[in-house]
Amino acid sequence: MELKGKTALVTGGSQRIGRALVLALAGAGCNLILHYYRSAEAAQETAAEAEALGVRVLLKQTNLSDGEGAASLADVSNVDLPPVQVLVNSAAVFSKDSLLDMTVDEWSKTFRVNLRAPVLLTQAFAKALPSDLGGAVINMTDWRTARPYPDHFSYSIAKGALDTFTKTAALSLAPQIRVNAIALGAMLPPPDQDQAYLDVLASTLPLQRPGGVQVIADSLLYVLRNDFVTGEIIRLNGGAHLQHP
Ligand SMILES: NC(=O)c1ccc[n+]([C@@H]2O[C@H](COP(=O)([O-])OP(=O)(O)OC[C@H]3O[C@@H](n4cnc5c(N)ncnc54)[C@H](OP(=O)(O)O)[C@@H]3O)[C@@H](O)[C@H]2O)c1
Description:
Blueprint: E1 7-10, H1 16-27, E2 31-36, H2 40-51, E3 57-61, H3 69-74, E4 84-89, H4 104-128, E5 135-142, H5 153-173, E6 177-184, H6 195-202, H7 213-225, E7 233-236
Parallel strand pairs: 1-2, 1-4, 2-3, 4-5, 5-6, 6-7
Helix pairs in contact: 1-2, 1-7, 4-5
The structure holds NADP nicotinamide-adenine-dinucleotide phosphate (NAP).
């Protein structure tokens, strides 16, 4: 897919990894619908950086754990941009719970943001895409679904279902729309930890370092541009899956 002049919708695009994805797409010439939830100021800053790369950016604020959140974000009928041809589902919560202490509220919120929103957005995107245009969906997931975190119980299960959704949607929407996922390992410290925490964690990996955002941006552009890749879950984890549990 040639990206120049296309429109991309990125959820959770205000900061951290979502910001890097927005800027990579802007650098490739995509106009953007940049979704955010609470980080209005960061979203405006990221939008300004993207616009400085010569593309148009529209900001949309939505709580994706709301019943109507995904539907209201998907409604781009009054948006003055070409049809959305790229959807990047990056917004997520990294809830900390275990099987024994999890609550239905936490489980539901995690599933609404991390799974239901990507599914509903993909559905709306596919329905709205004109039949003569191709499309691509990228889901940001976590390689640890293969080796789940017991202390991030709801998160692990929701991301595991997102992996399965990626493959199911790739079959359902082919040949018009390709659906892939990027499964991250140690890339950025969690919001409540610092870089030193991540560096220690990543020093035990075969590649002995964290990934950072540039490799994610590079992978995003690779998957979007390569028209023969669908149903793939591309692991970016410094070789962690090669280690014994
Ligand atoms: N960081 C890592 O190393 C890592 C590892 C594995 C997987 N991942 C995955 O990669 C993606 C990006 O990671 P990240 O660390 O950059 O994510 P993050 O900072 O934890 O969250 C991304 C964004 O999700 C949005 N969000 C949270 N709750 C929301 C809600 N109820 N409604 C709408 N938006 C909501 C937030 O937007 P606002 O700030 O605007 O509120 C936030 O900026 C996520 O899918 C994550 O699971 C990351």
